[in-house]
Amino acid sequence: MSAVSTPAPHRLSRRLLAELLGTAFLVATVVGSGIAAQRLSPGDTGLQLLENSLATGAALVALIIAFQPVSASFNPVVTLVEAGLGRVRPTEAGALVAAQLAGGALGAVVANLMFELPAVEVSGHDRTGSGLLVAEVVATLGLVLVVFGALRSERVETVAYAVGGYIAAAYWFTSSTSFANPAVTLARTLSDTFAGIAPSSVPAFVAMQVLGGLAGLLVVRLLHPSAPPVPSVTQESR
Question: Where are the transmembrane segments (predicted)?
Fold first, then answer.
């Protein structure tokens, strides 16, 4: 099925639901495991980051495997790169991004409530500095290359393991701990905990993520100039 063909309304609605739920569970994992790590390992930032990264990487593998038959981007940058590759219509991309943003906010609220915190507590964790901004470009560029490189492999099902492994590693090799996702970044402003980010830090982070995504789109086109179209990660396959 062509990813640029107009899907039936019920199919688009299922894709929107998959993106909303998948992104919600992803953010709930990031925020919830951050809160748990902070409580279980007080005073040990390195151990907190290890716990947070392992939980996030493992959840990504599970979520992508579970939702990929319908839609499993969970990231506005990935969806916009798909649109740039002609795999998703612009109007569909806009709807999918809206679902991801809504899902991210829902996931943060649920994570807060699970740990008996206020449903919404604006983060005061400032994340500033040129190094962190460079890191977000690098993290997002790498994510785009991993996603679309894995999708072009002979075994598309490996994309879940590639993405989960990459994000778990990127928590450590980037100074920003690899947000690499505008929906997740915005959602993390709603929790004043280990995984939070102050609203004032968000515009620069998102700008660098978009820049990394654009760079990733360019590199994907250079690496695969005549390759067959990749299977869409936001197009229902059934």
Answer: 16-37, 57-81, 93-115, 130-151, 158-174, 194-220
